[in-house]
Amino acid sequence: MILILNATNRPNNKTQVIARYYAQTLQDKGETVRYYSLEDLPVSALHHDYREESGEVKAWTEEYLLPATRLVVVSPEYNGSFPGVLKLLIDCIPPRHFAGKKAALVGVASGRAGNLRGLDHLTSILHHLGVEVLSKKSYVSLVLNLIQNTELVDETTKQVLDRQMDALLTF
Known about the structure:
Blueprint: E1 2-6, H1 15-28, E2 33-37, H2 55-65, E3 70-76, H3 84-92, E4 102-108, H4 116-128, E5 132-133, E6 138-140, E7 147-148, E8 151-152, H5 155-170
Parallel strand pairs: 1-2, 1-3, 3-4, 4-5, 4-6
Antiparallel strand pairs: 7-8
Helix pairs in contact: 1-5
C-alpha cells in the first residue's frame, strides 16, 4: 500500500490538489493507495507527552503508516521548510515505525523554488528514521497558476509527477 500524505493542516490548501492528483493517478495505474490530509488529524492528537504515543496517534499509525510500504509526502513550503504539523506528527511516532519504508517527496509552493529547501530538511529527517528517499523529487512551483478550482490542469506538471510515480513504483 502507498500512503499519500498531504502534509498540511491548513484549511482549503492547494497542496491537496497535487496530493489528490497523485493518489488518483496511482490508483489508475492499479496501485493500492490511501490518502490522508493532516487537515483531518485531530489537534488533540499532538498535545501529549512525547515519550508515549497518544491513542489518536497510535490509531493513525496503525491504520495508515504501518500498512504502507511506500510514502508520498506532498508538502507545501512554510517559512523556508515544511509545515510544523508534519514534524509534530513525526515526533509523536516511534522511529521504528518508519524504518525500512521508501518515500517520494513532492514540494509545493506559490513561489519559484517548489519547496526545495523544505524537501531537503524532510529528507534528512526521513533518512535519520531509516526511510529511503527517492532521489527524483518533484518541485511544483507557482502552484496557483497550475490549478483551476480543485483540479491540476498544467500538463507539464502532470508529466513531471507521472515520471516520479513511475520511478517510485520501481524503487
